[in-house]
Amino acid sequence: MSDHTGPAADSADGTDESAADRSPPEAGDADGDGASDPRSSDETAREVSSDEQGTNATADETDGDVPPEVRKYERFKKMDGARYERVNEFLRDRTYITAREWAIARLCADFRTETGVEMTKIGENLPELVPFMTDTYTPQAVNQARYSFEEKVTKAGATFLYGAMSGFFTAEDLDEMMYEVTEVAKFLLEVEGVDLAVADELEAEDRISEVMREVRASSADLRGEEVRCPECGHVHEPTEE
Fold this sequence. Notes:
Elements: H1 7-21, H2 38-64, H3 68-71, H4 84-94, H5 99-110, E1 112-113, E2 116-117, H6 119-124, H7 126-129, H8 139-165, H9 171-192, H10 198-223, E3 227-228, E4 235-236
Antiparallel strand pairs: 1-2, 3-4
Helix pairs in contact: 1-2, 5-8, 9-10
């Protein structure tokens, strides 16, 4: 799998190489007596100019095929040069989603309109939108990847919430677990281009910890393992009636 597949990179490389190959000879570099033919130089210059115009026109036409919102898309820029296999390996070690599902789920959220998700635009411009994606996708493939992402998030959420409500973990265990998963989630957001301030990160972590403590307390009440007084907060052992 190649690293850089965007048309901008291809156009830039091709233009530089072509210009170097077709550069007119310097005076004194011609074969023979060391003098260059003025007519030949003029003709060469005109040919170079014509070729460069053709190259620029081709680049303009290529850029014209890409929608403006695609060219301006700034997500995943920190992953220029990344290979799909490496991104996928990182995600599979820490989450249930694949690199394909991650990228397309983000694109579906960003390219959502009042009438739905622009799946055709996402699929046709996927290599330009995400550096580590090298193939275009059909709208059906985009929809399938988005559905797969949503399904895995739902199942992972149910698994985690059951673990939190089951009593298998103490409050300290849950705090430690939430810290680890939050770090992974923040990293993915930062890779997407989200700028997270330290104060916002700390506030989010505190709110998550507070919510998890409430979840554990509420689940304990549901299981009948302990009774918390709504007035003083003291925990009493349940009594048998």
